[in-house]
Write a structure and sequence with these properties.
20 helices, alpha+beta, 9 strands, seven-stranded mixed β-sheet, two-stranded antiparallel ribbon
């Protein structure tokens, strides 16, 4: 055991870690991480849920809800996981809730945002420590002392609250300013939302070792954040091989999208990106954005060619009169859960004047080209002198004797011959030749896939048009049949109404005739009764005279 390792072991023991746990950490190679864990913990866990409830004035369920919102698992009732600092934090929150300064639901929402953000910061810091340790061990160089990595990480801790507060204040000011600008401009709440998708990332994940894949992801994220910030936008989130961004104006979003397409095309070790862009109103919540505009942009990126920027009708309508951009119609495309939408390929007006409206990477892909794998490029660079005669100067990098990523079929054959003639290990020759052949076949598959994709797209458009015509024809037939049925129904109803009216008139006449007969009979009966009464009266008078 070296002096540095011995020092680290003694330091971890002094922090109160049991000797058995230290021995296990040494076997696992995680002693530095154990030291870091102990250095960052602010106090020892000594309180359970019931004790925290007593000290904070919160009931157990509210404590659990707040703890979950921060991103921590539910503690058991008798589990001592809370420190004195945890209780102090809860007391502050309770005071703000009690005096009405902070709504309880809002407190939980902010806890979720803070917990998620702090988790990302912490994970990134631990990954940085692991990466430094892995680099030191792989190089065989002592580098920093074994314990220095953890100690240096711990020394940064006092600075973190200051840095976070400063960054938070700056972002708070920027977010407030953006809202003010939106509220005082003609566009109002209209924003520009974009997705940039790294082409071929799935294949790279299968090809690259883990540390090289991490370098690719890191380069992809770095470019995305740098460009978005430079254009006054905001990276909403990274989704694997995709970045989602937003700007407060359509023009700045369009410039950012074009800048991304160009920068990723020129970036070493990265493939092209395809970019989808849309504009409109969004719902912003917890740092994320939602709405139909987001769904539209995410669907558009899936139909874009590598290196291309494809935009929605709103983007086209807003910028069509702007001399800085050029557009080419891509016809209407069917977008999942949205329907058919007219789309446009967008390009800088300066680039559009240089030639046909198609992307530079797309023009190069029309040739039979191949791409060297990430692991093969360094070997080809070492063989630069042997291969230099067969590669044109335009394929060289500005510095060094290495080669660019692409070469024609003829150059590929010459490179293969040079590899065979080179005085290198036979196994390495086999690997390089296999890489060249695999890359050539991969390109052929990509060209064929692109061709098939275009044919499928054209066939899909044809079928959609036929379906629309057939649907229109059927609608017209249904409408004509419906009109005929309605006319027949109206005629039938009119006839039934006439017959009902005639029948009603006949019945009324019959009733009137019966009533008239009864009236006449009643009159005759009344006359007879009156006659009998008058006769009886006269007879009575005659009797009285006698």
């Amino acid at each position: 055991m070296s002096d540095n390792e011995s020092f680290l072991r003694d330091a971890v023991l002094a922090l109160g870690v049991p000797e058995a746990e230290v021995a296990q950490a040494e076997m696992d190679g995680t002693l530095e991480l154990v030291a870091l864990e102990k250095l960052v913990v602010d106090g020892e866990p000594e309180f359970d849920l019931g004790e925290v409830a007593v000290h904070s004035g919160l009931d157990i369920e509210r404590i659990r809800a707040f703890w979950r919102a921060l991103g921590f698992p539910d503690p058991r009732t008798d589990e001592r996981v809370f420190t004195r600092s945890d209780i102090d934090m809860l007391n502050v929150v309770v005071r703000f809730i009690d005096d009405g300064s902070l709504d309880q639901d809002l407190a939980l929402q902010m806890a979720r945002v803070i917990g998620s953000s702090m988790n990302r910061v912490a994970v990134a810091q631990v990954e940085a420590v692991e990466a430094q340790l892995a680099t030191d061990r792989a190089s065989g160089d002592d580098g920093p002392a074994a314990g220095d990595v953890a100690v240096q990480a711990a020394e940064v801790l006092p600075l973190m609250p200051q840095i976070m507060e400063l960054v938070w204040r700056r972002h708070m000011g920027a977010a407030t300013r953006r809202r003010i600008v939106r509220a005082t401009t003609d566009e109002g709440e209209i924003v520009c939302v974009g997705f940039a998708d790294l082409v071929g990332f799935t294949a790279q994940t299968q090809e690259l070792p883990e540390h090289q894949l991490a370098e690719v992801v890191g380069q992809f994220e770095t470019i995305a954040f740098n460009l978005t910030s430079a254009h006054g936008g905001r990276v909403v989130k990274m989704i694997g091989d995709e970045v989602m961004f937003m700007t407060d104006s359509v023009r700045s979003g369009a410039e950012l999208a074009l800048d991304m397409a160009h920068t990723y095309r020129e970036a070493e070790h990265l493939s092209d990106v395809r970019v989808g862009l849309a504009s409109g109103r969004v719902l912003e919540r917890d740092g994320d954005i939602y709405g139909t505009v987001v769904n539209l942009a995410s669907r558009i990126v899936n139909v874009a060619f590598p290196g291309a920027v494809v935009v929605s009708p709103d983007i086209h309508d807003t910028l069509s009169g702007d001399g800085g951009f050029a557009f080419r119609s891509l016809r209407s495309h069917y977008l999942k859960d949205i329907g058919r939408v007219p789309l446009w390929a967008m390009r800088s007006a300066d680039d559009a004047t240089d030639g046909p409206f198609r992307h530079e990477r797309k023009r190069r892909s029309d040739r039979n080209t191949f791409t060297l794998s990430y692991t093969a490029r360094p070997v080809f660079e070492q063989l630069g002198e042997a291969l230099a005669p067969v590669v044109p100067e335009r394929l060289r990098r500005e510095r060094g004797s290495g080669f660019d990523e692409e070469a024609t079929t003829e150059q590929l054959e010459a490179i293969s011959d040079a590899v065979l003639e080179a005085d290198i290990d036979e196994d390495l020759q086999v690997e390089l030749l296999a890489d060249i052949e695999a890359s050539r076949r991969l390109h052929q598959l990509e060209v064929e896939a692109q061709r098939r994709s275009e044919l499928v797209d054209m066939e899909a458009d044809r079928r959609v048009v036929e379906a629309e015509l057939e649907a229109r024809r059927k609608v017209e037939e249904v409408e004509a049949d419906a009109r005929r049925r309605i006319e027949d129904a109206l005629a039938e109803a009119e006839e039934k109404s006439r017959r009902a009216n005639d029948d009603a008139n006949r019945k009324v006449a019959q009733v009137a005739e019966v009533a008239e007969r009864k009236a006449e009979a009643a009159k005759r009966d009344a006359r007879r009764k009156a006659k009998r009464k008058t006769d009886r009266k006269r007879r009575d008078k005659d009797k009285d005279k006698d």
